[in-house]
Amino acid sequence: STSTQEGRSILLINGPNLNLLGTREPELYGSTTLQDVIDLAQKQADGLGVKLQTFQSNWEGAIVDRIQEARTQGVDAIVINPAAFTHTSVAIRDALLGVDIPFVELHVTNVHTREAWRHHSYFQDRAVAVICGMGTYGYTAALEFAAKHMKLKKKAL
Length: 157
Ligand SMILES: O=C(O)[C@]1(O)C[C@H](CCCOc2ccccc2)[C@@H](O)[C@H](O)C1
Fold this sequence. Notes:
Layout: E1 9-14, H1 26-29, H2 34-48, E2 51-56, H3 60-72, E3 77-81, H4 90-99, E4 103-107, E5 129-132, H5 137-149
Helix pairs in contact: 2-5, 3-4
Bound molecules: ligand CA2.
The ligand O=C(O)[C@]1(O)C[C@H](CCCOc2ccccc2)[C@@H](O)[C@H](O)C1 is lined by residues 17-18, 20-21, 24-25, 29, 81, 83-84, 86, 107-109, 111, 118.
């Protein structure tokens, strides 16, 4: 492969309240802040030779708009932690399916050991991969997968 992973472009999206990561409920979500996660992801992306964009919002429609914009930017893959919208958002699901960009669904906690209502995701059936329970290492795993192992659409010549 070329020095970059075929010039792959990855968008990392974090949903509501993840801006508080590392500052609340560290026993559940760890003590790594979202900024730490982003800084580490950027270093990892540089090492992998992929372009990384990151976005966090507490607003559902802003996440929909960002996903739609990804299509115009030639984003090849999305890594998304939809947070609470995992369990509620047909709108974000529709945006992901609409832009036809493959995505990895990511959760810091193992949602399957938590409340029953967290066991369903509006994304799980269409995600290329679902990562959960690895803590913030999940972001590292997801980025590695998206950069090196995920099958992407052929880039238009
Ligand atoms: O485990 C995950 O990553 C979740 O997506 C996190 C969501 C919660 C996002 C808010 O995370 C916080 C982290 C630290 C402090 C406050 C909130 C939760 O609603 C999902 O069921 C699972």
